[in-house]
Amino acid sequence: MTKNLLAPEDKKxxxxxxxxxxxxxxxxxxxxxNIKDVFVLFDYGNKIVRLLVKSVKxxxxxxxxxxxxxxxxxxxxxxxxEITLFEGAPPIVVPMPMSKEEKRKKGFNQCxxxxxxxxxxxxxxxxxxxxxxxxKKIRETKRQTTLGRDERMLNxxxxxxxENKIIKNKTVVVLDDxxxxxxxxxxxxxxxxxxxxxxxxxxxIAH
Length: 207
Known about the structure:
The structure is a single chain. With about 210 residues, this protein is α/β, with parallel strands linked by helices. The chain has a single domain (about 20-205), classed as Rossmann fold. The protein has helices spanning about 10-20, 20-25, 45-55, 60-85, 100-105, 110-120, 150-155, 165, 185-195; strands at about 40, 90-95, 130, 135, 160, 170-180, 200-205. The strands form two sheets. The chain has a five-stranded parallel sheet. The chain is globular, with a radius of gyration of 17 Å. It starts with 10 loop residues before the first helix and ends with a strand. Residues about 1-10 have low confidence and may be disordered.
């Protein structure tokens, strides 16, 4: 059976998991990003942050995935409290989608895995719904990491679609791992707003 875990001998990961989560979050540098409706936890320029992201994004490391999901959930609770106060209802959370072919090749969607981990921390009283079907990728695209900024924007045009019945008149939080150019998030926001979402917010691990 194949395991999507970092090798046990990876001492850096073991050391990270040995740190208390609250202390670990204080030690990690906050992201300098300051964009309306975009929330980013950490600065990707930091080597520990990069290790966290890569362990979750490429290795699906269970321990660090749980740790990162906890950090994301803390921020989501703050976002949700404000939205509920002013809009009367909590947001709906959707993971950044992959195409069926992308997911088949990789074996998992790290954003979906993070959402599932966050749901374990989400008591019914919080009222936050996670939907894995509200936003879908309907067209294959090139890997964004191989493209420049302008190419990234063109690459994702009209590659996503949203389900109107799920997100109509709701505020939607799109969960993604790394914010680079906001190309994928911009496309996700376009698709969600076009299908009736009231507002779209991005929540990222790092930038």
